[in-house]
Amino acid sequence: MPELPEVETIVRELRPALVGHTLLHPRLHATDVLRGVSAARLLATLRANRIVEVSRRAKHVVMQFASGHRMIIQPRMTGVLIVYARRRLPEERRYVVLEASLGHGRTFVFQDVRRLGTVWLLDEAGWRSYTARFGPEPLADDFDFARFEACLRGTRQATKKVLMDQRRLAGVGNIYANEALFRARVDPSRPTDRLDRAARRRLYRAVLDVLVEAVEHRGTTVRDYRTGTGERGEHQEALDVYGRGGEPCARCGTRLATTHVIDGRATTFCFRCQGEP
DNA sequence: ACGAGGTCCTGCGAGC
DNA sequence: TGCTCGCAGGACCTCG
């Protein structure tokens, strides 16, 4: 389930393969993923354009074209973006949403088993309003503690829900919210207005550390996620709590608990360690 | 402003 | 063995 570290990994691997190239013979195999653009207009724009940059915003891949258009791909749950440098195996040809040749036997593919992912085509004005919907990027150089505190202010919602609210903070999803809260020893259900300064500090540090480590491990592969070259990430080996309900806490040995009461999503935490204000 | 719940979508594992 | 059911969950929506 691509969150910030997974999309960052995809982008870093796609960038050298895509920048300076044009997507040749683009083919779209599903139109229900399109948002605000017709298949004809998307394909015509791709054919006429060279890719000048590939970047990430929140959990989305952003391909910028010479014309100023941007194609945004949101992988959501099961989307993968891969540049294949070889012939694809039959199972690698399944669930293809968008594919295009890059020449020299290379193929760019967006595949999505569940087709919850979306594809947007935006002009400059569209991009400005699109990117304005999201909160700050936690790995940006200027994302300091004061900015993080601003993300938490003005709400009484559970801290975990606030961390995952893309309008407040970009890129954190269920896996990294669970991990950061555990590392910071913060109760996921505690309202953000009841976190003291020390807890906010620990959480700031934990969010950044967890994201940086996950990027270094090229993301977390639980099931579907693959890097931009089709490989599995390695951060699943380093998870403390996500997917480990019932196992002993790495810090104190207490059995980790899993609940669905926060925002309906699986929340795994340690009753004993994560009770500090 | 808030929470609850629905929607999209398919694979997979549990349970009978 | 084969079936049904619920869950995985990000982003959006409506309703009360």
The termini sit apart by 30 Å
Question: Based on DSSP secondary structure assignment, what is the total number of beta strands?
Answer: 11
Radius of gyration: 20 Å
Helical proportion?
Answer: 25-40%
- Which runs of at least 5 residues are low in confidence (pLDDT < 50)? none
Strand line-up across the major sheet: 2-9-5-4-3
Mean of residue pLDDT values:
92
Portion of residues in beta strands equals 15-25%
Can you offer a commentary on this structure?
The protein has seven helices and eleven strands. With 277 residues, it is α+β, with helices and mostly antiparallel strands. Strand 10 (257-259) and strand 11 (267-269) form a beta hairpin. The chain is globular, with a radius of gyration of 20 Å. The two termini are 30 Å apart. 38% of the residues are buried. The model has no long low-confidence stretch (mean pLDDT 92). The chain binds a DNA duplex (16 and 16 nucleotides) through loops.
Draw up the topology in text.
Blueprint: H1 4-18, E1 24-28, E2 34-35, H2 39-47, E3 51-57, E4 60-65, E5 70-74, E6 79-84, E7 96-103, E8 106-112, E9 118-122, H3 124-132, H4 145-152, H5 159-164, H6 174-184, H7 197-216, E10 257-259, E11 267-269
Parallel strand pairs: 2-9
Antiparallel strand pairs: 1-7, 3-4, 4-5, 5-9, 6-8, 7-8, 10-11
The chain binds a DNA duplex (16 and 16 nucleotides) through residues 1-3, 32, 59, 74, 76-78, 95, 112-118, 155-157, 164, 166, 173-174, 222-224, 263-266.
